[in-house]
From TrEMBL:
Localization of this protein: Cytoplasm
First and last residue of the signal peptide: none
Record organism: Agrococcus sediminis
Keyword Nucleotide-binding: yes
Cofactor(s) needed for function: Mg(2+)
Domain Phosphoribosyltransferase: from-to ranges: 19-164
InterPro entries assigned to the protein according to its UniProt record, in alphabetical order: HGPRT, Hxn_phspho_trans, PRTase-like, PRTase_dom
Catalytic reaction(s) noted: IMP + diphosphate = hypoxanthine + 5-phospho-alpha-D-ribose 1-diphosphate; GMP + diphosphate = guanine + 5-phospho-alpha-D-ribose 1-diphosphate
Protein name in UniProt: Hypoxanthine phosphoribosyltransferase
Ranges in a coiled coil: none
């Protein structure tokens, strides 16, 4: 296996590192305004949301708390199974909290529609969603998203937290995986 030439496995770049960071600043200003005077708990969805969480939290110029959940609906393939499992639960009590779920991508919407319902049932004061990417043409269930970075075409993307078989999460931008990798 070639461990060095990661970029060669991209057929194109969809969102550059610079575009990601500019968008995060924009989203952070909206979030600061919307949550003024309120507590804010960011809930990151492992593992894909790690990069978004790291950069969004540092773009926010206010107090926040962070907690993490791990859920899985994909395994190592590229198509959603629709079955959501909790692999790691939150440590925080959500009673009365303003929760903002932080995600890398909404594809079918199955993960987030399930997760939002799950967190709402724990007595949070509010539960909203911030996702860096959304694929409007792939949605199987409607998900009300308050903060969305980019709408992208219905293609399998990697980078900035998004993996293919656990690799490529460390790419700084987001791109489309070249077919030679999985065909
Ligand atoms: O809208 P959906 O079709 O439900 O897909 C979106 C979810 O799929 C990916 O996670 P995955 O379950 O692959 O795990 P990961 O975050 O560890 O990569 C992604 O990070 C989202 O959490
Ligand atoms: N890496 C990756 N994970 C996903 N999970 C749901 N959609 C996608 C996607 O396009 N790429
Ligand atoms: Mg994920």
């Amino acid at each position: 296996m070639d461990f060095t030439h990661v970029e060669a496995d991209l057929s194109k770049t969809l969102v550059t590192e610079e575009e990601l960071h500019a968008k995060l600043e924009e989203l952070a200003r909206q979030i600061e305004a919307d949550y003024e005077g309120k507590d804010l708990l960011l809930v990151g969805v492992l593992r894909g949301a790690v990069m978004v969480m790291a950069d969004l939290s540092r773009a926010l110029r206010r107090h926040i708390e962070m907690d993490w959940m791990a859920v899985s609906s994909y395994g190592s393939g590229t198509v959603s199974s629709g079955v959501v499992r909790i692999l790691k639960d939150l440590d925080s009590d959500l009673t009365g909290r303003n929760v903002l779920i932080v995600e890398d991508i909404i594809d079918s919407g199955l993960t987030l529609s399930w997760l939002r319902g799950n967190l709402e049932s724990r007595g949070a004061a509010s539960v909203e969603i911030c996702t860096m990417l959304r694929k409007p043409d792939a949605l199987k269930v409607e998900v009300d998203v308050k903060y969305c970075g980019f709408d992208i075409p219905n293609e399998f993307v990697i980078g900035y937290g998004l993996d293919y078989a656990e690799q490529y999460r460390n790419l700084r931008g987001i791109g489309v995986l070249a077919p030679h990798v999985y065909e």
